[in-house]
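Hey Z.,

So I finally got round to the D-arabinaric acid thing we talked about over coffee. Here's the setup:
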Amino acid sequence: MKTIHAEAARVPFARQIESVVMSTDLLDIHTHLYPPSFSELLLWGVDELLVYHYLVAEVFRYLDMPYEEFWALAKTEQADLIWKELFMKHSPVSEACRGVLATLHAFGLDVKKRDLPTVRSWFASQDADQHITRCMELAGVKRIYMTNSPFDDLERPVWEKGYRRDERFQACLRIDPLFLWWPEAGPKLARWGYQVEGGPSSKKFFGEIRRFLADWSKKMNAAYVMASLPPDYAFPAKSASARILEQAILPHCREHGMPLALMPGVVRQVNPQLRLAGDGVGLTNLLTLQNLCANFPDNKFLTTVLARENQHELCVLARKFRNLHIFGCWWFTNIPYLIDEMTRMRVELLGLSFTPQHSDARVLEQIIYKWQHSRRVIAQVLVDKYTALAQIGWQVTPAEVERDVKDLFGGNFQRFCGTQDGSSS
Ligand code: RAT
Ligand code: ZN
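And the result:
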């Protein structure tokens, strides 16, 4: 790598490439953010940044206190504790810590003062709606794709009341319970008026699940359907889940031209005492995805996988199946070290036919650092690759660089989804 990096300095437009990558507006195709109309579901501000579950996991590396004592604290007290342990008692070098500081720095706040109260009062004086637009501008994000679950008791009523569309946000239909926990999802569907009581052997069952999916896809104007999966999720299988997938979810997606985003590799609640921070990672059996891509060529699959060890196999799968679109460096892989590795591997195996990143932001301002950090890595990979081409006489033009970056930052995704403007309509 060293030689190529050194060569990069000699490419006359290396700076230009970096500036295109740093400044091209993009689609953030998977987040956990909401518009202000979802009230308390929209998380923003320094306390939310500090109690981000990535930092909760990190603070317990240092704390002796019982988990329950931490959870009994008020949010500002948790934030104070995290600030003290992760920023004051040790240098904040982890990606999640660095991210908080990079975000504050982007707002022009003086992080070297280590003055949390002043930072708090700055956030308190922001108007949520304008703040969203400012964060999106700073991050260069054109549209935020949400994660919208009808199974979420806080979220469902907002949709049921009638949500007035905010053009900055795009809905996506999240259905993990339907996929994985039928005993939990079934009674809920029945309560909401879908006739699923007879179970998979009844005539109406799959049709009623499709009616549920159609109703919610329409209500949300959802761009795609999505679920995260455990590493050992199997298909084909005799399980109720596999039958629901084959006879309801996949036909629904085909009928409505919606991709199905599958995010395998999560082992939920490895340590339940950490709550949201308690999920782990496992090696996924990608045969499931291969079977799906091969057996359902009219379905489109969007996939990101959690384990680093699965990334090469996933790239090879994408070379075999054009109904598979790889996206993002997800969660534990969203660190510069692995973004670099994964992006290089993807470019070398797939050219530019993938979407290198999504933010997965849960707190609004996180889009700023997550994108700033990823853009830097992506820029370096592209500079290296264009340099290697220049060495063999293929000089990319500025227009070609812009085209490539636009493709990586949303163009490929839109083409795959069959949408022109990032919306599902
Ligand atoms: O990245 C995260 O914040 C995780 O907690 C999950 O939300 C994950 O991204 C998911 O969508 O399941
Ligand atoms: Zn997520």
